[in-house]
Amino acid sequence: MDKRIDSPAEAVRRISDGATVMIGGFGGSGAPIELIHALIDRRPKDLTVINNNAGNGHVGIAAMIEQGIVRKMVCSFPRSADPRVFTELYLAGRIELELVPQGTLAERIRAGGAGIPAFYTPTSVGTELAAGKPVETFDGRTYVRERWLKADYALIKAELGDPMGNLTYRMAARNFNPIMAMAAAHTIAQVSHLVPAGGIDPEQVITPGIFVDSVVEVSDPRQEEVLNRQGAAYPEAVA
Question: Buried-most residue among 79, 129, 171, 219 (CB within 10 A)?
Fold first, then answer.
C-alpha cells in the first residue's frame, strides 16, 4: 500500500476539532515542525496535545498554543527554555494542563500502543499527581495505577521512510516518535528522505509500516532551536 502524501497540508487535513494529537519530539529533537505548522494553518479547535513539553518561543507547539487551537496539554515539562506562551495562557485559565512525570508519560504511551490498559509505578506516590488514583502495595512498596494514553492522531518525524511507511530515525530524534506511532489511531510521519520500497534494510527499520498511515517528505526540515534563535514566529514570520 502506497502511503505517500504530497504535502504536510494534505497530511493533516483530516484532523478535526476536539481531536487528541500526539506530537513527537524532545524539545526540538525529532519535532515535526512542518506538520505542526500545517496543522496551525488548518485551524482546528479544542485539541488535546500530548508531548514531552509545552513548546518554546513562538514556533512549533508554542505556536499552536499561541494561536488558540489547543485546549489541553498533557506533558512532563510545561516550563522549558522559553515557555512564555504556555505560562501566560495557563495563568489566565485559557489552557488546561495534565502534568505527567516523564518516565510515566513514556510508559503510558507505550502501554497505549501495546494494548495494556493500566500499569503500576512508584513514581508520584504521596504527591499531588497521585491524588485520586488507585494505589496498591506490592512486596511492601506502594505503587500508583496509571492508565494508558492513546490518541486520534500522531504527528512524528523520521529520517528515512518508504512508501509503505517503514521508518528509521536520526540519533536522539527517535525519542517519543516510535511509541507514539503505535499509540495513535492514525499516524502521520514527516520524513527527511523518502526512499523506494526496499530502500531501507529491514534490519534497520525502527517503526514498521503497519503503524503508519501517511508519509510526507520534507527534505529540508526546520529546527525549533534555530527558528527560536532567529526570533521566528509562526505564522507571521516563518514560510
Answer: 129
18 in Cβ contact with 46 (< 8 Å): yes
> Which pLDDT does position 21 carry in this prediction?
98
Phi-psi region of 176 (alpha: psi -120 to 50; beta: other; left: phi over 0): alpha
What value does the mean pLDDT of the chain take? 96
Question: In this predicted structure, what is the pLDDT of residue 6?
Answer: 96
Provide the residue type at 225 as one letter.
E
pTM, entire model:
0.95
Q: Where are the domains of the chain?
A: 8-118+151-229
Q: Which three cell numbers stand for residue 190?
A: 514527516
CA angle 172-158-70, nearest 5°?
90
Q: Can you identify the CATH homologous superfamily of domain 8-118+151-229?
A: Glutaconate Coenzyme A-transferase (3.40.1080.10)
Could you tell me the pLDDT band of residue 238, with boundaries at 50, 70 and 90? very low
Calpha distance 139→71 (Å, rounded): 40
Task: Report the C-alpha gap between 107 and 111 in whole angstroms.
Answer: 6
Nearest to 132 by CA among 124, 26, 4: 124
In 3D space, the residue among 54, 56, 53 whose CA is nearest the CA of residue 81 turns out to be 56
pLDDT at 40 over 70: yes
Cell of 167: 521508518
Sequence-distant (6+) residues with CB within 8 A of 201 are none
Alpha carbons 162 and 189: distance in angstroms, whole number? 11
